Write a sequence for this structure.
């Protein structure tokens, strides 16, 4: 799982969103660059962890996505700069 995918799952957890509950958000809300957000969201949808809902910018977790969001670390490790 990529850092961007984890950020998205943590965003759902931050708002205590359960399975099949809609959450409206943009890439900026979960601190992911737009291009990476789209790729990560498509990946989560393909893995059947997230569902794109009808209103723009609305998503919901599947039961599997919800369980995974609860297992995700509360904070992502800080990336180290290469020398």
């Amino acid at each position: 799982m990529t850092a961007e995918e984890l950020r998205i799952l943590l965003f759902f957890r931050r708002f205590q969103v359960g399975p099949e509950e809609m959450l409206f958000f943009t890439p900026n809300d979960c601190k992911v660059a737009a291009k990476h957000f789209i790729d990560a969201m498509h990946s989560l949808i393909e893995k059947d962890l997230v569902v794109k809902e009808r209103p723009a910018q609305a998503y919901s977790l599947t039961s599997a996505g919800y369980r995974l969001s609860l297992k995700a670390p509360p904070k992502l490790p800080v990336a180290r700069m290469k020398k």
